[in-house]
Specification:
It comes from Amphimedon queenslandica (Sponge). By secondary structure, this protein is of the alpha+beta class. Helices cover 29% and strands 24% of the residues.
């Protein structure tokens, strides 16, 4: 609740600069996942709490993933180990078991990003993610993100914080969705913080072709989880890996280090096409468009975020004031499911809340 108290106080003092929304914020449920358990049992205590909602989630997925791909996904489940690397294949089997879902449906849920990040035929793009890296005068890096999604009312109910632990020690933490083995937002204390913003380019069939060609080993969320989980991988190693590892789908990857270092990686499926470093300014703002191009007038969250950051100034940037930036319309919008602010250089700091902003509804055609 520290964020909420600070938000109210700071937003009053900054009201002359920013239009800050005071939404109804709900604490994110907290869970611990024991990596020392057999993979099929790791998620049991978590997903049992959400099993009643799974039929609604599956119904939504059938609406956004083309039917031929749904058929293809479900057809590989009999030979899952040939397509999904371990331990994720067994985690998916366990999630299916404890949610009374089929393995195919669970796999489809885990591939939702990989099969929705493509060019949407020029439709208006509103209500998608925002990630921000900002450094204070002491060299502390803060990493904030809003995750926005089309069926936000449903996935708000699946949003959880998970501490992934081994031998009783936290390996990394993530804000994720119950039953998703990959992660889109996470932090390894003292290592790095990572967030994913969707990039819509290319054809959905290119995603599917790459999925088959790589044996689904390029699932974006799984690659990010593997990066966070590897204790031997430091910030520079992570940047190197995430610029070159083949992925099923295009994306923007935002990575913060434990010091005043960070990048936005613009990815296609095979490699990075741009790496934007935090070295000439004290912040980077990424939404869902290439930073070297102007954002579309129908979805300009970038400029309001930049205006808010400049109004606050580097002297006043903190985790709480960054939260205020992420609460400034249209950075915050009705598609915003959750907000996370983290700092891998300050390992005790990791805050996330589920958002219910009182804003006019937007025509949301993008995901994440």
């Amino acid at each position: 609740m520290a964020i909420l108290s600070s938000l109210i106080f700071l937003s009053l003092s900054l009201s002359s600069f920013l239009q800050v929304v005071r939404p109804v914020d709900v604490p994110v449920p907290q869970y611990t996942l024991n990596l020392d358990l057999p993979p099929q049992e790791r998620w049991a205590h978590i997903v049992k709490d959400y099993a009643a909602l799974y039929p609604l989630l599956i119904e939504e997925l059938y609406q956004i993933i083309p039917k031929p791909i749904v058929v293809a996904i479900t057809s590989v489940t009999g030979v899952l180990d040939q397509f999904i690397p371990q331990p994720y294949a067994d985690e998916i089997r366990g999630i299916a078991k404890y949610t009374n879902s089929t393995v195919g449906e669970t796999l489809m849920g885990n591939l939702a990003y990989d099969f929705t990040a493509f060019y949407h035929g020029g439709k208006a793009k509103r209500g998608a993610c925002t990630s921000i890296l900002a450094v204070d005068n002491n060299g502390t890096l803060f990493h904030g993100r809003n995750l926005d999604y089309t069926f936000k009312d449903l996935i708000r109910n699946f949003t959880i914080n998970v501490e992934f632990q081994s031998k009783g020690q936290t390996v990394f933490m993530a804000t994720t969705f119950a039953g998703m083995v990959g992660v889109f937002t996470g932090m390894r204390p003292g290592g790095m913080s990572i967030s994913l913003d969707q990039r819509n380019t290319g054809e959905i069939w290119s995603n599917f072709y790459d999925a088959l060609k790589t044996g689904f080993h390029g699932m974006v969320g799984v690659v990010l989880r593997e990066t966070l989980a590897d204790a031997n991988m430091h910030y520079n190693d992570a940047v190197s890996k995430l610029t070159s590892t083949r992925l099923i789908a295009p994306c923007f990857l935002i990575i913060g280090g434990p010091k005043a270092e960070g990048v936005v990686i613009t990815r296609d499926r095979s490699k990075a096409i741009d790496v934007w470093h935090l070295n000439e300014t004290w912040y980077l703002v990424e939404t869902n468009y290439e930073h070297w191009k102007p954002p579309p007038a129908t979805d300009n969250r970038r400029d309001p975020a930049i205006k808010a950051l400049n109004s606050i100034g580097r002297n006043n940037i903190t985790a709480d004031t960054l939260f205020i930036v992420l609460s400034t319309p249209p950075v915050l919008n009705t598609a915003t499911s959750y907000t996370t602010v983290m700092s891998s250089g300050s390992p005790s700091y990791y805050q996330a809340v589920i958002r219910y902003p009182p804003l006019p509804d937007l025509d949301v055609n993008d995901h994440i």
